[in-house]
Amino acid sequence: MILRFLKNRIFADNLSPWQGIVAAGMMIAIFIADTVTDLEIAAAVFYVAVVLFCVRFLQKTGVIYVALLCVALTVISYYLSLRGSHQSGIINAVISIAAIGMSTMLALQTRDAQRAVQEAREHMVHMARVMVLGELTASIAHEINQPLAALTTSGHACMRWLAAKPPNIDKAQKAVARIVRDATRASEIIGRVRSLVRREPTPHQWISINDMIQGIIPLLHGDIKRDHITLRLILAENLPRVYAGIIEIEQVLLNLIGNAIESLRQNPQEQRILTITTQLQPDGGGVLTSVADTGSGLETEQMKQMFEPFFSTKPGGMGIGLAISRTIIEAHRGVITAYAQKPRGLVVEFTLSTSGNEPS
Q: Smallest Cα–Cα separation from 336: which of 356, 311, 306, 299?
């Protein structure tokens, strides 16, 4: 029973044999030295080293029992020592016991603090994983919502054309073609998110920004027409191509144009103007694409945070679209910025390099 008590309370389960031998050897050596030397020599102070050694692998209860054992050995050595002044021996014993007690307390507090820091780090890592999972989920929901909405719209249109008397087969076929295109785009978005999780390289190719914009406008034509928005396309001619991922840049354009459309809905119909501009930067550093609206705009402080994750001024907005856009553009070694448009509105623009180096 005594051996079981010692094992469970003092030496604990995580004590390896060599650690126990070292701790016992240190205590025996200090006990012998403290006993055979004069009482004026406070050899028992070296029991502090035993406590500091044991605190690394024993539980709190075990460390306390080791400290008490060291105190008991100090007292026994005092009575067994045959040489020296007993008055000095008492003083040295008290000093040694005080040193053992204080060292034990400080060592345990330090270890508890270290464990608290470790637990805090583990908690932060867990929270970071949760945040990453949340951002990834929000990203998927945000990005795939547009092609799914387009699928629904095209599906309803196809049903209307087929139900007509007589059925309009030509328009129904065009609606089905749009369904296939949007379904493919949704699949490509999921594939891109999967590649990001696996850290696989996203395929890039030489693309024309103007062609991409003109290909995106039909996807948003329904919203533009329904909300009575005046669309102005100012696309520079003979622009050089940029080396980028089609799905990624398309998603940036959809985010920016979609945000502009939502902002314009608050305006009177005659003030709903959406302007998309492309031009070559004067220094030849790349292609500049701008999306400008005449909406209510943002306050200065809001503009400073608009590209931060989960920041949104829209009721029910997730605040993830612009953060995703910034990540995409910066991954393409580009820059995305925003500024107020006069007399009202907001301009968001981004640049893409025309050099042949593949973005990282």
A: 306
Rounded CA-CA distance 144/237 in Å is 32
Ranges assigned E (strand) in the chain = 205-207, 230-235, 242-244, 273-280, 287-293, 335-340, 346-352
* Separation of alpha carbons 360 and 347, rounded Å: 27
Cα–Cα distance list, 254 to 107, 179, 292, 325 (Å): 59, 17, 13, 10
Q: What does the pLDDT look like over 216-262, one tens digit per residue?
A: 887 777 778 888 888 899 998 888 998 888 878 888 888 888 888 88
What's the pLDDT score for residue 289? 92
DSSP reduced 3-state for 340: strand
Contact in structure between 339 and 293 (CB atoms under 8 Å): no
SS3 category, 251: helix
- The C-alpha atoms of residue 191 and residue 7 are separated, in whole angstroms, by 56
Q: How far is CA 278 from CA 211, 241, 336, 348, in A?
A: 11, 12, 14, 12
CA atoms within 13 A on the CB side of 28: 6
From the list 256, 276, 275, 261, the residue with the least C-alpha distance to 322 is 256
pTM of the model: 0.48
Distance from C-alpha of 186 to C-alpha of 197, rounded to nearest angstrom = 17
Q: E strand or H helix at 202, and its extent?
A: none
Buried b vs exposed e over 35-63: b needs ≥16 C-beta within 10 Å? beeebebbbbbbbbebbebbbebbbeebb
Which amino acid is residue 8, in one-letter code? N
Nearest alpha-carbon partner for 49 in 27, 65, 71:
27
Residue range 296-339, pLDDT digits in tens: 777 666 667 677 766 566 655 556 677 778 888 888 888 888 88
